[in-house]
Structure formats: structure tokens, C-alpha cells
Amino acid sequence: MALALAAGVLLTVAAFTVATRRLLGLRFGNVRMLLAGTFMLVIAEPLMRAFARTVDPGDPGITPIWFFILAVVCALLAGLIPLVIAEILIPSGSLPGPLELAGRLRRHLTRSRRYLRITRILMRHGLGPYLRGRDPDLGAPSSRARLARSLREALDDGGVTFVKLGQIMSTRADLLPVEFVEELRLLQDGAASAPWAEIEPVLTAELGGPLEETFAHFDREPLAAASIAQVYRARLRTGEEVVVKVQRPGITTVVEQDLDIIDRLAHSLERRTRWGRAFGVADLSRGFADALREELDFRIEAGNMAAVAAASEGEPVHVPVPYPRVSGRRVLVMEWLDGTPLGSAVPGGQAGQDLARTLLDTLLRQIMLHGVFHADPHPGNLMLLADGRLALLDFGSVGRLDGSLRDSLQRLLGAMDRGDPLGVSDALLEVVPRPDEIDERELERELGRFMARHLVAGASPDAQMFGRLFRIVSSHGLSLPPEVAAVFRALATIEGTLARLAPGFDIVTEARAFSVRHLTEVPDARRVRDAVMQEALGLLPMVRRLPRRIERIADAAEHGRFGVNVRLFADERDRRHVTGMLHQVLLTVMAATTGLMAVLLLGSDTGPRVTTQVGLHQLIGYNLLLVSTILALRVLVIIFRRSG
């Protein structure tokens, strides 16, 4: 008996689901449909009893059937109303399912524990007031130095992700005062190494077998340890001396938790503090998260190495060769280089000048000619080889530019070289997304003052030059695309590297010399001729058809047959939008019309009697009222479903 009752309930709910989808034209979640169907069943019996009391035993047989149908439709309507109210209050898809909700709760608890730990670290280092909305005191150098030291210590205690964040921040001289940049650079130093017992399982898992199957020799002591990976020296079974970069175990889970915390913290700071909005910390956190996730996949780094090597072909700067066949997501095997890190080996003298010129020339070629460049050329990512050459290391951060951006940057740098503020302003507005409102005259003046300060003869560039250019851009509401921001960040970073190689190195003069050499390699006449040929080939088919089209237009105008055909709503999306609006308006008019007719009929006492209590006009009015209500519910649920 219970089984038959359950089957009946399920069949009724299934029929209710089909009817609801047909009447409202939308699908709803299973839980909502089950609850609404159950409510319909609960209310159906009292409605039928109420309608049955209006029927006399002597009434014709068709009368009870009419009232039974009316009771069923009223019960159906009673089930539709909670669905529409739920859709208005809580749109479909806004609440997760049970399994997703359990997963979110588990992640929330884990994140909350980590969040509390990070908050305690920030409080312990005196950064709590700045999280509550207090603007940092950056007036005096001593205040900046004290705050920078507290920030560096807090990031160091926060762990791998926050250390990496500090390392990225130390390259942003465009945003941070020099005291912060210098203090955060201390985070570039090596981290404590993980024991071999934790590293070996990562290696065997990525290699798909014991180390002996791939390496003839593997040194268990790391050459260096960083926040994300450790580096070992080894020799392949084929005899090549290699360096093996191994990701720290469990680092991905920790990084994802911390990135979520950083994202939430950044949005909170941007919402509650002026300095957070000024720096655009939410956008910075998103860019940092994307870059760090790429660094966690060493296959991307191997591809970056190959791309930069191709862009540096023929250059005197060496790029190590990766071994993709024995590398993976968490292990990267690359060529062993015999040399000394640039951070601890500074040649000085003429050798330093030559190396600085070579490094700048290589980076400018990568940016301006090939569009693939090393985006983080600080001293820790450079090595002085035994033969006197420089080598680039760590390709987790590589920038890419398409042809149009490279052309715009060339025009920008060319206008700077000519000392043309108007040309710089025009080229800059080609590089950045143009806002709706901008004071171009003031932008031109500020760029002119910038060039008069940094780019005139005798002016010596400093580490703040690109930072000032960034601030000019941001003060006018312009936002650099990530690709272009990577270019300026790389140029700002390489300033410090060049100063270490050759104190007093004039980056502006050398950049101008590069421009001259580049123009000599590709003469203006040949460039113009090639451009004209390409454009002419593209226009040739149109030019061939143009005389015949002009003749047909002139003939039609002469004989009075000239007309213009315009196809309205030629786009399918426009047609769908207008059709949907018309359907909605039509449903609204029908709902209002049937509702008005129902009210008029319900108030009428004329006409034949169906029962002793209900007339025919009133019965029709009840049915029209139900139809009007269903149509109105359909309009409402469509409106709120679209707005949600």
C-alpha cells in the first residue's frame, strides 16, 4: 500500500513537472520541483472538497467534472506560486547543490584557518591598522623604511606564496617607494631546502620510475632552494650534464589556498582604503595569481625557454636547452651551465660595459623585433659563464607581444627619441585602452615634462624613470595591458641589473643606438615599399570591380532607379532579442486582458446557472482568472530569471 502511494506521489510530481515546464517555459531544479509538487498535493485535497460542496446531487454529470478540473488547475497554480516566489528571491543557480555545498564548506573551513593564521602574522608585525583602512604613513623616509621592514618580515613568515608576492612587488618600482623595493629585494635570497625524502617521491612520480632509469648520477644535495622549487645537479644516462629543477611537494594546494586569501584581501583593501584603490590591488592580485599558476607548471617554463631561445638566436646571450622528454609538470631538466650567478660576480670596467650593452641589446631585440622576451631580468636570473658570456635563467615569467603592439611601441619609443610629446601621447593612446574621457592636452604636457627631465642631452636616467612614466599613465585613468606592463616592468628591472654590471650605464643613449642600428638593418625605403606592396595586393580585387560598380550606380541614378536597401535585424541575436521582447509584451497584454475579463464576469449575476451557487459567467470568470494568473507568473519568472 505504501509502495503504491509513493508511486502515485512520484507520478503526480512528474506530471506536475511536465506541466510546469510547459506553462512557464523554463526548467527548475529537482529539489524545487519536488517541494512545489508536494505542496500541490497537500493543497489539492482541501480544494477538491471545497469545490465539491458547491455541487448539488441533482446537478448534471458534466458539472462535477468542470469543478474537478477547476480544482486541479487551482492546485497546480498553488504549486506554481512558490516556484515563482523562490525564483524571485533566490534565482536558479545561485545556491550550490548538496555535494558542492559540502565541498565549499570544507574549503571554507580550511581557508578560515589559514586566513586566521595570516591575520595573526600581519597583526604581530604591526600591519593590522592598515588592514582596517588606515592609510600608510609614507611621508618620512624613516616611516617608509620601518613599514617596509614590517611588510617584508610578515611576507617572509606567511610562507611560499607571500614570499613570491614580495619578490614580485620588489620589481614594481613603478608602484612602490624605493624603500619598499630595496627591503623586499631581500626576499630574493634562497629559502630553506626541503629534505631529500620529500623530494624523491616527486621525482619518481614525474619520471614514471626510479631515478636510475633516467640519470646515471644524481647529486642529493641541492645547488639552490627557492620558494617554489629546488635545483639539483645530475647526469643523464646519455652522458649530458644537466640541472634538475624539482617543485616542492604539496606546494600547489598551499598556493591555491593562499591565492584565494590574497584575492579576498585585495578586494577588501581596494574597497576600504584609498591606497588600495590608488594601487589597483585587485587587478594586481589577479595578475600575480595568473603568473604564479603558470610558474607551477614547468611544462610552460620549458616552452618559454624554447621561445626565448628562438628569439635570441644569434645573440651573445645564452639560453639553457631544456630536455622535454624527461621533464614534466613538476620537474624540469635543462642544460648545465658552468658559471657564476651575476648577483655574486660583477666584472666591472670595460667588460661590464660590454656585458651591459649586450644584455640591453638582447632584451630590446626580444621585445621590439620578436615579441617574446624575458620579463624578469634581475641579477638573480642571470649568470656569468666561464667564457665571459651572459646566460638567462628562470623562464617562469616571459612576456609576449603581437605585431600591432610592437608597432605601437616602436612609434612610442621613436617619438620619445625625437622629443615629440604629441607623438608620444598619440602612440601611448594606441597602446592602452582609451577611456571615454581624457584630457589629452594635460597628458601631452606631463609627457613633455617627463621627457625634458629624463630624455634630454646630459640627463642621467635613474631607477625611478619608468616608475614616473607609470604614474603619469595611471593618473590619467589609463590602464596598461598586461603585455605592455610586462615590457615596462622588464625595462625597469633591467635598469638595476645594468647598474650592477656597469655603474653609470646610460640606458637612454644605448637604446637610441639600438634604434639607429635597427633602422639601418631595415631601411626606410624597403619598409615603405613592402608595406605599399602588401596593401596594394589587398586592394587589387576591389580596384578591379570599382569601375563597373561606379558605372552601375551612375546609370541607376540617371534613370531614377537609385535606391538603398537596408536589412533591419540582419543579425540573428537582434532578431531573438526583439522576438523575446514581443513575446513578453504579448503575454503581459494577454494576462491583463484575461484578468480584466475575469473580474467583469465574476461580478456578473446574469446568465444560466451551473449550480445553485455558481453561474456560467462566474465559472468562466474563475477559469479566466486562473489563465491570467498563470500568464502573469510566466512573465514574472522570465523577467527575474533573465535579471538573475
Number of strands: 11
User: Which shape, going by the Cα principal axes?
Assistant: extended
Write down the overall mean pLDDT. Answer: 76
Classify the oligomer: single chain
Structure, described:
- By secondary structure, this protein is of the alpha+beta class.
- Among the domains are: 337-521, no CATH class; 530-564, no CATH class; 572-643.
- The chain has 23 helices and 11 strands.
- The strands form 3 sheets. Strands 1, 2, 3, 4 and 6 form a 5-stranded antiparallel beta sheet that branches. Strands 5-10-9-7 form a 4-stranded mixed beta sheet.
- Helix 4 (98-124) crosses helix 10 (251-272) and helix 18 (465-475) runs antiparallel to helix 19 (482-501).
- It starts with a helix and ends with a helix.
Give the structure's gist in a few sentences.
This protein is α+β, with helices and mostly antiparallel strands. 64% of the residues lie in helices and 7% in strands.
Task: Please outline the helices and strands.
Blueprint: H1 2-24, H2 30-52, H3 62-89, H4 98-124, H5 128-131, H6 141-158, H7 160-169, H8 178-184, H9 196-207, E1 215-218, E2 224-225, E3 229-236, E4 241-247, H10 251-272, H11 274-279, H12 281-295, H13 298-311, E5 317-318, E6 331-335, E7 339-341, H14 349-370, E8 372-374, E9 382-385, E10 390-392, E11 398-400, H15 403-418, H16 421-431, H17 440-454, H18 465-475, H19 482-501, H20 507-521, H21 524-558, H22 572-602, H23 616-643
Parallel strand pairs: 5-10
Antiparallel strand pairs: 1-3, 2-3, 3-4, 4-6, 7-9, 8-11, 9-10
Helix pairs in contact: 1-2, 2-3, 3-23, 4-6, 4-10, 6-7, 6-8, 10-12, 14-19, 14-20, 15-16, 16-17, 17-18, 18-19, 22-23
